[in-house]
Amino acid sequence: MREITLSQAVNEAIAEEMRRDPTVFLMGEDVAEAGTPFKVLSGLVEEFGTDRVLDTPISEPGFVGMAVGAAMTGARPIVDLMFGDFIYLVMDQLCNQAAKQHYMSGGKLTVPMVLRTNMGATRRSAAQHSQSLQALVAHIPGVKVAMPSSAYEAKGLMKTAIRDNNPVVIFEDKLMYQDKAPVPEEEYLIPFGEANVKREGSDITFIATSSMVQVAEKAAETLAAEGISAEVIDPRTIVPLDEATLLASVKKTSRAIVIDEGHQSYGVTAEIASRLNEKAFYHLDAPVLRMGAMDVPVPFSPALEDITVPTPEGVAANARKLCAGEMIYAA
Amino acid sequence: MPHDVTMPQLGMAQDAGKIVAWLKAPGDAVAKGDALFEVETDKATMEVEAQAAGYLTGVVASEGDDVPVGQVIARISETAKDDTPAPATPPTPEPASDALPEGKQITMPQLGMAQDSGQMVGWLVELGAQVGPDDLLFEVETDKATMEVPAGARGYLAATLAQAGEDVAVGAPVAILTAEAPANPVARSADDAAKAQALAPAQPEPEAAPAKPAEAPKPAPKALLAEGGRILASPKARRLALEQGLDLSRLVKAGHPQPYHVSDLEVLRAMPEGQTPSTGTAQASRRLTARVKRPELEAFLNWAQGQGVDDTDAALAGLLGQGHVQTLAIERIGHARSFAILRRLSQVAVTEDMPELILRDLRGSFVQNVELGAEDIPVLTLLPKGKGLTLVLECAPEQLSAEAAIALLNTVAGRLEQPLRHLL
Amino acid sequence: MTKTNTEDYLRMYTQMVRIRTFEDNANQLYLSAKMPGLTHMYSGEEAVAVGICEALTDDDRITSTHRGHGHCVAKGAEFKEMFCELLGKAEGYCRGKGGSMHIADQSHGNLGANAIVGGSMGIATGSALRAKLQGSDDVTVCFFGDGATAQGLMYEVMNMAALWNLPVIYACENNGYSEYTKTEEIAAGSITARAEAFGIEAHQVDGQDVLAVNELTQKLVARARKGEGPFFIELMTYRYHGHHVGDINREYYRSKDEEKDWKENRDPIVRFRGYLVEQGIATEDEIEAINAAVEKDATDAVAYAEAAAYPDVSEVDMHVFAA
User: Where is the composition biased (Low complexity) (chain B) (predicted)?
Assistant: First the structure.
């Protein structure tokens, strides 16, 4: 199978859907000729013109609000939010407006829009361009949240998102835009709420999102050499969450580490760990561990930044302890 | 049709309003839009207008009354003499003139296992008097006994909330002790106190000190409780131990390091039975033995197989458990299985439920005699004795009465001697 | 073009009376504690909603505000579904899930009331963007109050609407008060100048004169359909009640004399009624017959809504996500 970058995969997904459905359009800061700072959208304006690829002023609440209105009246906008950190700017439009229209109207209004943005630290971008804020959005009922872990997922999830009749936020890992993966040439969709068992194992389950899937896979590789068999599961969407697959795995292995690049406190890892605890408690032979980013603003200095996010070594070290029955936190 | 006049809802967090003044008298003619009455909320005072024309009738709220929002306070009727009864107005609770003092509440103690109230025999201290924690405060009678209850705290008996002869629910307040000498000590009947209690917001009530002769209910035996506190074990290890009848406290006593995980259960399984006494040995126990000279088990098991019951343990469990218990565990050295006992032998099946009776089958062993003491549930041990069997039933007195224990052992022995007869 | 025939005039009058009657009944429901929550009365501002909505078709969209019952009625909604919604009943426009502050009626192009002040400005402008991208000739009217001119979102979307010539009309209902504060204390400079700064054509009109409002709106809607938008209208009006129903002692921010003056001398319904009789368009008897019919319609709808069923509890987690 051919291999393409995550960036190309996103671009292909949007182009295919814009060809298929004339109501789909793209808007955001520097999405047209510039193709975004990460060049993910390069070439789209040439094919679809400035009517369907709209460069906006730097007015995040304004253009996200407009996407909500366009979506409510028959269009399928894809909004590009240049950095995930700007989510804070659009919270009212996303969480008070987009997320609630369908419910508040008793099911009469729908908001089929996609907000694509990014996440991920260790790019030396410091505290306001490095955050992974998926938990903020996932907390709000009415918004779906997808977190592709490779080019394959990026394309399949984007196409599903564009066809979904709800607001969907897609967080892409900005460090993975140039990572290649096999992506079929023929069309495919990845349904929401279906986790992907990336690697099977019997001793411990790693539940990892987006960038952290690679981290978990590397840790599993290391552990395999030591005779510890780790299962790696990528939920792919955190809303909806494929609880059944996660629970089945944890009931099998009796141990789990949940890994996500958002801040650890009150985060995605906490939510998933809590559900495992509630629903698989009597199958657990060790506490479910959370591994998220440290609860500090992302520092600029490489020496500091690199230690704020989970690493394969850290995951493997914790897994060894759990499998040996050692306590990570004193009783 | 008469039009109801209600207390208006005026604010976002308002639930009542006070009627400052009626601007119309009962029987007055009113026009739509006339000011009817003046109302005051926490925020403001305003005049409330009539929403219909007619005559003001059925006025049930007076000036100065606080009325809940939405409550009907009068009507506008077509005639001045509409005398249909006014809508029922729940009376605003009047603050009792003898308001209860603030202080430590003393409650009716729970003295027995199945006791839900106690009768106040009498107060042993005068109202208003000072007491110390050990001073006997009142006398209470339950179905079992009469006893004197100490105050349990220092203070002044500022209120008695139940009087001689009254029944008071366990945990309900019977007195209030104040730190300062009360100016107006209050005496109420339990009935009044209960009403006042219903109106007051719930608050945690410190219980009276336990009465001296109280027969405290014994805590239910907990298999997983070790001496010196809780055993550290994973949820999965605990669940498996429970299912397989393994006692984690034996690992503690053997000095095996905590926390326990599933792998530690192997160690536990490998430990010989009886290496450490079970947690229940301290209990008083009953021990009965019976003898079966010629058990006809072979014939029974062959017959059961003919009925489609291949699992000999299931057949045995069904034979011995039926009519006595709903779940029965068959335990041999190293493993145990529980069975749900149903009416038809062919329906007896393995279960994860906790057994009510353990059948400890030591027929194939060298063990000649057992005296293990009562365990968490009754244990019936089968021991080899020549061509026959010895049956030992051990249990705690509260698990089986003497009669029940004798009946159980006797029936089981009979069934072992003539199993097919039992079935017919 | 001004509407000149009798039928149009009588409909405008009827719609204004319907709004006033709806609000009087809603006020009573609230005061008698039959209506839960929180509500804001539109009484006094009827000529704004009616003058504008009578210039629109069902394909044209509006976005509404927390003070939104008037917009909803003016855009064609039925009393029965509206009262049911206000009382949280299953037959309400939003199955009781939205209530007074979120009432929406998309069958007549009402995209919904919004309880965030200025919160719908993005939605209205986005609706206009969709019309332009899809080549539809519908127009979107964004209703908001003078208080909402203090929100940053307004400037962001007016900028884009002007850049892209979107068919949107920003209708600022200036009722003189931003909640409990005089408008001049929260808004520096001129309101219309805010729009003019983006090159948006802005008008100020007497919001108590339904014909003036309607005439101006018709012209602007026609031009917006041709791609000459956006436009901005400041409608000078007055709210008879407080900010919300419980805002009863208002003298610390406005005098009773001022309220009396607006009610007695500038009431949009009284003024238009006088005009209709004077011009021989309707007799006093005909007007009274309209009023009585509307009153009955409202009384029946309230009775229906009071007796109507609440939604089944199974609906609580329905409509979180669309299929």
Answer: 195-214
> Of A203 and C37, which is predicted with more confidence?
A203
DSSP B133-153: TTSEEEEEE-SS-EEEEE--S
Cβ neighbourhood burial of C85 (10 Å; 0-12, 13-18, 19+): buried
B266 plus B176 within the same structural domain: no
Backbone φ, ψ for residue B363 (5° rounding): -60, -35
List, in order, residues 6 or more apart from C280 with CB less than 8 Å away. Answer: none
Q: Is C140 left (phi over 0), alpha (psi -120 to 50) or beta?
A: beta
Contact C126 A25 (CB under 8 A): no
Domain ranges of chain A: 3-182, 196-323
pLDDT number for residue B278: 42
Interface test with B, best of A285, A323, A327 (most B CBs within 10 A): A285
For the domain spanning A196-323, the CATH number is 3.40.50.920
B418 and B359 fall within a common domain? yes
Residue A89 to residues A67, C65, C117, C158, Cα–Cα distance (Å): 15, 22, 17, 18
At how many degrees (to 10) do helices C152-163 and C121-133 cross?
10
B142 plus B194 within the same structural domain: yes
Count up the domains in chain C and report the number: 1
Per the domain annotation, does B58 fall within a domain? yes
Range of the domain at C301: 6-308
A-chain CB neighbours of B264 within 8 Å are 325
Inter-chain CB proximity C33 and B51 less than 8 Å: no
CA dihedral B84, B90, B95, B96 (to 10 degrees): 90
Window from B221-230, C42-51, C194-203, C310-319 with minimum mean pLDDT: B221-230
Query: Across the interface, do B9 and C28 touch by the CB < 8 Å criterion?
Result: no
Q: In this complex, is the C-beta atom of C25 within 8 Å of any C-beta atom belonging to chain B?
A: no
Q: Please name the amino acid found at residue A199.
A: R
Of C104, C116, C157, the CB nearest to A108: C104
Q: Is the dihedral of CA A261, A266, A268, A274 positive or negative?
A: positive
- Has residue B106 got a pLDDT over 90? no
Please check whether residues B272 and B291 belong to one and the same domain: no
Q: Cβ of B43 under 8 Å from any chain C Cβ?
A: yes
- Domain A3-182, CATH: 3.40.50.970
Q: How far apart are CA B142 and CA B116, in angstroms?
A: 9
Domain count, chain B: 4
| pLDDT average, residue stretch A314-331 | 90
Distance CA C45, CA C53 (A): 13
In a domain, C314, yes or no: no
| DSSP letter, residue B345 | G
Return the minimum-mean-pLDDT range out of B82-96, B282-296, C305-319.
B82-96
Tokens 């561990």 locate to A289
In chain C, which ranges are E strands?
Answer: 61-63, 140-145, 168-174, 177-178, 181-182, 201-206, 231-236
B328 and B346 fall within a common domain: yes
> Do B352 and B308 have their domain in common?
yes
Q: Across residues C63-90, what is the average pLDDT?
A: 97
Q: Which of B230, B232, B236, B242 to mutate to test the interface with A (most CBs of A within 10 A)?
A: B236
Q: Which of residues 332-351 of B touch C (CB under 8 A)?
A: none
The answer to whether position B351 is within a domain reads yes
Give the pLDDT confidence of C92-125 residue by residue, as tens digits. 999 999 999 999 999 999 999 999 999 999 999 9
Residue A129 bears catalytic tag? yes
Residue B235 counted as domain residue: yes
Cis peptide before C36 (omega within 30 of 0): no
Considering the domain architecture, whether residues B414 and B305 belong to the same structural domain is answered as yes
- Does C175 map to a domain? yes
For B378, phi then psi, to 5°, come to: -60, 140
Which CATH number do you get for residue C177? 3.40.50.970
Chain centroid to Cα A8, Å, comes to 17
